[in-house]
Description:
five-stranded antiparallel beta sheet; SH3 type barrels; globular; alpha+beta; 127 residues
Amino acid sequence: MDKAQAEDYLHSLLNKTLRITTDDTRMFMGRFRCTDSDRNIILSQAFEYRFPTSSSTGNTTSSSSPSSSTSEPTEATEEPTSRYLGQVVVPGAHISKIELEEFASQVKKDTQRQVVAVRPKEVQEGV
């Protein structure tokens, strides 16, 4: 992807809802506002979601296991905790995954816009 294509793609993401997962398993969901050369991302209207860890749910493994002190999410039935942050900067160095949140209603609107954009051409050709 060349620079112009990359810029066009970033512009297409402006004001879209992104889900960003960080290396400490937190997830941020909000509207994409901007980024920089260090891959820091600014989200507005953002929520932070923290998933329960095995230590916080009371599920403990044997103390001899080296993974018992890690903060990996469990397969537990507990819901993630969330809080509203407003505007947040997610450091690019800690981002592990970025996902575009699209709903069926958003995809349908785009399809309807394309149909409406084509219709005036057909009307002009028919005149």
